[in-house]
Amino acid sequence: MKVTLLRKIPVATDICVFELASAGDAPLPAFEAGAHIDVHVDGFVRQYSLCSHPSEAGAYRIGVLRDAASRGGSVAMHALEAGTILEISTPKNHFPLDERATQTILLAGGIGITPLMAMAEQLREQGRTFELHYCIRDPQRAAFRERLAEAGFAEHTHFYFDSEGTDARIDLAGVLGAPHEGKHAYVCGPAGFIDAVLGAAASAGWPAQNVHREYFGAAQPSASTDADANGAFQVTLAGCQRVFDVPAGTSIVEALRAGGVEVPVSCEQGVCGTCLTRVLSGEPDHRDLYLTDEERAANDQLLPCCSRSRTPMLVLDL
Q1: Is 93 among the domain residues?
Q2: pLDDT tens, 79-91?
Q3: Same domain, 56 and 134
Q4: Both 204 and 241 in a single domain?
Q5: 11 & 47 share domain
Q6: In this entry, which stretches build a coiled coil (predicted)?
Q7: Is 250 helix (H, G, I), strand (E, B) or coil?
Q8: What is the pTM of this model?
Q9: Domain range for residue 43?
Q10: How far is 12 from 67, CA to CA, in rounded Å?
């Protein structure tokens, strides 16, 4: 879709909210809390979570951290001016709220606040029980502080600033507490923060299906580094019985693309889940940040943008 950048609003150090409106006559599609859009900017395609209230019509809002160490997408976004026409995808949601939850705990690390802000907006409107725990380096880097100080948010929100010392940091075990069926946790932020939350939840006995996470980054967890795991293998597409060679250093998606087969992709980093594909035979070597440990252990699906094979042949449901 074509959209117009209406406003670029600084909301914290190195963080701006971008307000986007339809550039044509068609209205923007509705979305649910936790959804993100792909944004095409300066040759990059980047995923940004929608942070506005899902019921707000007429505009999308995304929060973008300007990261000088990034590959260029966030820097290009921050260089944009009001009136710029951009191309975006329709909203996609791999991080939805569970409507059956009776208690919701939102845990944000840094810019990971963006999808959780939309969740807080929705939970507040619905009058549901929730709490928001926001971990950030210092107060100047905390986005949406004015909004979170308003009634309906302030009593549910807890800030933790690294600048205030170790005593002020979050006690994950205490925040999560004991699990129960209607209690769900949602975490978004840097990989280290998410892994800490997942570890604390596992130690407390939380069922995996009650802990939801979305990574902002491409650091790969426990990827194999031995030569065999990173070597060449073959892929068979069950739908046409074509066999493709996947050389070392080439992803499955790239090998298929070279052979004239396009697989829908978005982030190409194993984060968004767009290219999730069923595995009919063979053992994947998972390199993604999207699947849960239980889903990886089942070995019946993989993300071909980043994952490889532990067996000489993979048969995919394509």
Answers
A1: no
A2: 999 999 999 999 9
A3: no
A4: no
A5: yes
A6: none
A7: coil
A8: 0.82
A9: 2-88
A10: 13
Domain identity same for 250 and 185 = no
Give the Cα separation of 198 and 200 in Å (integer): 6
Domains identified in the chain, total number: 3
CATH of the domain at 29: 2.40.30.10
Is residue 221 predicted with pLDDT exceeding 70? no
Label the pairing between strands 36-41 and 44-49: antiparallel
The token pair that represents 239 in the structure block: 């739908």
| Assigned domain for 297 exists | yes
